[in-house]
Amino acid sequence: MNELDVPESSLILESSSRNTRENGLNTATILKKMDLSRVILVTSAFHMKRALAVFVSVGIEAIPAPTTSEQKLRSSELPLLDWLLSSRALEKSTFAIKEYIGLIAYRQLGWIE
Whose CA, among 12, 43, 78, 92, lies 20 to 30 Å from 22? Predict the structure, then answer.
C-alpha cells in the first residue's frame, strides 16, 4: 500500500514517454495488452485538460482525478496579498501558459480535438 491506500497491484505507471502524447500512446499499448480500456487518470490539475484530451484521442476511457498538490490559487488570509508578485504566482502562470500552448499545439498537430 502507498500513502493513499491504493494497492500497488492497482497502479499502472508508464514512465518511458517524453511528452503527454507519448504517454497516451504508450499507456494505450499497455492497456491493450492487459485487455483494459478504462483508467483513472491522475495528473496535476494544471495538466489534466490536455492529458485527458490525449487519452480520449487514443481511445482510452479516462476518469480524471486531478491531484491537489498545488497550493490553492488564493493562499493567504488577506486576499489583497494574493495579487502581489511572488515566485509561486509566477510558477502558476508558467504552468498555465505551458498548458495553453500545449493545447493549441496538440490541436494543430491533430493529436486532440
Answer: 92
| Beta carbons within 8 Å of 3's beta carbon, 6+ residues apart | none
Please give the Cα distance from 13 to 55 (Å, whole number): 14
List the grid coordinates of 106. 496538440
Task: Please check whether residue 94 is in contact with residue 68, taking contact to mean a CB–CB distance below 8 angstroms.
Answer: no
59: left (phi over 0), alpha (psi -120 to 50) or beta: left
Cell numbers found for residue 26:
504508450
**What pTM value is reported for the model?**
0.69
Average pLDDT over residues 10-22: 90
